[in-house]
Design goal:
By secondary structure, this protein is mostly helical. The chain has two domains: about 1-155, Serine Threonine Protein Phosphatase 5, Tetratricopeptide repeat, CATH 1.25.40; about 175-300. About 70% of the residues lie in helices and about 0% in strands. It has 17 helices and no strands. The radius of gyration is 19 Å and the shape is globular. The two termini are about 20 Å apart. The relative contact order is 0.08.
Length: about 300
Amino acid sequence: MLDPAYGDPELTRLRERGAAGDWPGVRAVLAQARDQADLVTMIDVVTDLPGSEEWTGRAVEQDPEDTLALLVSGARQLVWGWEARSGARAEDVGADQWQVFGARLERAEEQLFEVAEREPDWLGPWYFLQITGRGVSVPEEIATRRFEAAVRRHPHHPASYRQRLQQKCAKWGGSHEQMHSFARTSMLAAPEGSRLGELVAYAHLEHWLDLDNGEDGRYMRSAGVAHSLHEAAERSIWHPDFVRDRTWIGAHNAFAMAFALCGENRAASRVFAELDGRVTKSPWAYLGDPVAAFTRSAAAAK
């Protein structure tokens, strides 16, 4: 089952209120966030709703001093911008799409920087500014500063590290070497049991995605990839100190897909069993329909 709320009751309630355009109801749920990282998770989940730019915009218009409303609006503007761009490669994006994309990201950056100025300790604006920065192609120095600003406010924040990993990908101006180095270095620098081991799985999936047909399979089935995946899983999702937070299934889905592509059926089967049918869009969308891809891979791993 693909659940954008990750099976979490609070996130489900948040999306229900967002779908109804109920900003006071959304705000009440956001106010229950456990910490800044949890708030980012909640905002990520609710701003993914189609049409949410309407009620987030109204919330800011009705109370310009509500900084939380401004943060949510900025986050929605960036998601709305990426929706206009679509997931196509740059050369396949039309001129009109680029124009709308740029305008929405510009609006997002304006709002997010305003939030950062009002609330210097908040993680949210710096997390979302990493994504807008990739969209507007900020220089590497600025991208680095935005990432560092985020992790200063919340060390080892998994979502910020995932965004930084994207910045290191070849498709965003980095390289496979930079990407793998960042993933492993970050994992080893974090406490054992940290979720950052997922970076290793995501890095291998990004590398696989960038290769031609045939070469991609050979890469994933190499001994070095299998070894690094096992090491990362033992240090993260299979470690006794791993915390199953609201979105823990995201890390497990990344390892499930990586182990499946790697031909490590026993390891893949173990992760699929832990997931018990809970699917996330990322990374399975790389294989087409996420639920269908998950189901095929789970069956093949048995």
